[in-house]
Design goal:
alpha/beta, single chain, 4 strands, 21% helix, 103 residues, disordered C terminus, 2 helices
Length: 103
């Protein structure tokens, strides 16, 4: 992230206290459009960069902070698809302090 100091980064609509200095964006599609026209840079998780729009280059940010993914679902939801998604998510990336939350 040190190489990105001074670059214009997005301010996310409805998210107070962010560190962005660039234009306000409401979603990833808008962010990528702003990156494409040279208004800012964006830092996105790997899961959102493929496939990427033509004209936008993605490079790994080696010193980016780790991010946390939280999985939440309604505890009353008994659909097999939801149960299999939760099981697959927990199996894909086990972590010693993983917590599956329900709402």
């Amino acid at each position: 992230m040190s190489d990105l100091e001074g670059e214009s980064r997005p301010r996310w609509k409805g998210v107070p206290g962010g560190d962005g200095t660039g234009p306000e964006v409401a979603d990833v599609v808008q962010l990528v459009d702003m990156v494409k026209v040279g208004r800012m840079i964006g830092v996105l998780p790997r899961s959102l960069i493929e496939p990427m729009n033509a004209g936008v280059v993605c490079v790994p940010v080696i010193d980016a902070p780790l991010s946390r993914l939280v999985l939440a679902w309604n505890e009353q939801d008994r659909r097999p698809l939801v149960a299999s998604f939760v099981a697959a998510a927990l199996e894909a990336k086990p972590h010693q302090d993983s917590v599956a939350a329900s709402q």
